[in-house]
Design a protein that fits this description.
The protein has ten helices and 15 strands. With 318 residues, the protein is α/β, with parallel strands linked by helices. The protein starts with 22 loop residues before the first helix and ends with a strand.
């Protein structure tokens, strides 16, 4: 079917190559279908600073929770350390995925405020051990990839030879109590899970599909407003990722309810090629784009970014 014969919304052209089920394709199309009206009269230069768990950061654009990147380092540089150094230099929150204790400890030595996201290991003692190590060595917060449970065969996944298992609300409640620092549930993609996480006492949730773990997954920014509304008054921080590849993408997610967003995988090429400098360049440009769009929509600071300026397929979203 040619594009000009497709009767549905723009950006959602049917495909036959198998990519239709790819949540990444769906998310990208949805983000690109959101347009922005201009409110330029009385607009002033925007302030990007924001507060996360009581600490002030220079921007709501954060690093992503990468894993295993040190295996592909070049010239003696460790990518996990490099992007932590970039986060430290830029004064933004740094996120870290599955890494051994000693690797995470090395990341913390950079001085970057870092969040460690732990896998839902079948062995709960391993979860407790990694949380305790993280807190003892100065982690800003800890959390869990609650969406990384199943593999593509429908069975509990195995990562680096380590068995994963289910995540129950009771488990989350226990992890929150044991953490000793803010605990974040990463991989929330429904109001149902958001409310269960809230009942467990989490400090924050990350609205995400983990780079397409779920086939036909709903775009995080599409379900984000419903989740934000459901958690209203709870004090729970709401973060978002998946295809945050420009400051314009970040603006849309912030307008739809995110308190902060993590950069997408578009940061990988500059990270692997240039290390810290590449990350700083990428994130600096994203901050400039965010600030530009805030200026054009009359948002003087992050808290004043509103979905009132957003349109989807020509219809106002609010």
């Amino acid at each position: 079917m040619s594009e000009n014969k497709w009767p549905g919304p723009p950006g959602l052209i049917p495909v036959t190559d198998g990519s239709a089920k790819d949540a990444n394709v769906i998310a990208r199309n949805y983000l690109d279908a959101i347009t922005v009206e201009m409110r330029i009269v009385d607009a002033v230069e925007a302030d990007l600073s924001c507060e996360i768990f009581g600490r002030r950061f220079s921007s709501p654009i954060m690093t992503p929770a990468f894993s295993h990147l040190n295996k592909v380092g070049k010239d003696g540089k460790k990518p996990m350390v490099e992007y932590a150094l970039a986060a430290k230099e830029m004064d933004v929150l740094n996120w870290v995925g599955m890494e051994p204790d000693e690797e995470f400890g090395e990341i913390l030595e950079t001085g970057a405020a870092s969040v460690r996201i732990i896998k839902p290991f079948k062995d709960h003692d391993r979860v407790f051990s990694e949380m305790e190590y993280s807190v003892q060595h100065g982690a800003f917060a800890v959390g869990m990839d609650i969406d990384h449970v199943f593999g593509t065969n429908g069975k509990y996944d195995v990562v680096d030879g380590i068995e994963l298992g289910p995540v129950t609300q009771k488990d989350l409640t226990t992890y929150v109590k044991r953490a000793g620092v803010p605990f974040i549930a990463k991989g929330v993609l429904s109001v149902s899970d958001a409310l269960k996480c809230a009942e467990a006492g989490v400090s924050g949730i990350f609205v995400s599909h983990h780079h397409g773990r779920i086939p036909y997954g709903i775009p995080p920014v599409q379900v984000l407003p419903e989740i934000k509304k459901a958690l209203e008054g709870s004090g729970i921080a709401v973060f978002c990722d998946c295809h945050m590849d420009s400051g314009y993408d970040a603006f849309k997610a912030l307008a739809l309810g995110a308190d902060a967003v993590s950069v997408g995988r578009g940061i990988l090429p500059p990270l692997l090629k240039e290390g810290k400098e590449g990350v700083v360049k990428k994130m600096t440009r994203m901050n400039e784009e965010l600030k530009e769009l805030m200026g054009y929509t009359g948002a003087s600071d992050v808290s004043s970014i509103s979905d009132d300026v957003l349109y989807l397929y020509g219809k106002k979203m609010k």
